[in-house]
Amino acid sequence: MRTPPLLTFLASLTLALSPLSGAAHAAGTPAGTVIQNQAELEFTSEEGGPPTRLPTPPVTTTVQALCAVSALPNGSVAQPGQSAALLPGEATTFRYVVTNSGNATNTLALTVVPDAASQFTPGDLSVHRDANGNGQIDPDEPALTSLTLDADAGAPLLVRATTQAADRGSAYPNLSVRCASNVREQPGRSEEHTSELQSPMYLVC
Q: pLDDT digit string (tens) for 92-104?
């Protein structure tokens, strides 16, 4: 029994177009990548004979910029990624690796804010890029409030925390990494796609 022409047409169209949705949202595809898909319609006339194939106009899709960040070691207030036990008046340095996990270059905003569960407020809380990877804040490694990274690129960061003689109890400095980009890339639009990651540290005096 011959398949009616209309059913053959619909089946061919669906199968030919299905790669478009998957490719347009492929994870890790660089922003700005142009993906072109073209379907082929196939039908058979009621009189029989070989099937007829007709190409459709190509469909072009541009991959949008997506923002995502990673900061390791991560954790929570209940289970901090890092901890330090200090005497009042001492200081410590926490180490992180921050990665731009998105598909476009992004400028990441860096802040450190004590969690509300803290019993005292640590001092300094400056963020520095560990340019030489020695785990120490050197004179040529100034404090940062932002960091620009290419897609999939990472950087080692250092967070310095100090304590005062009167400090007692526990504190949870929280490293916050945030990025923003215009995902529509349309003139006159200020729409932003944001991603924020927070990684608490634990200090006890």
A: 999 999 998 888 8
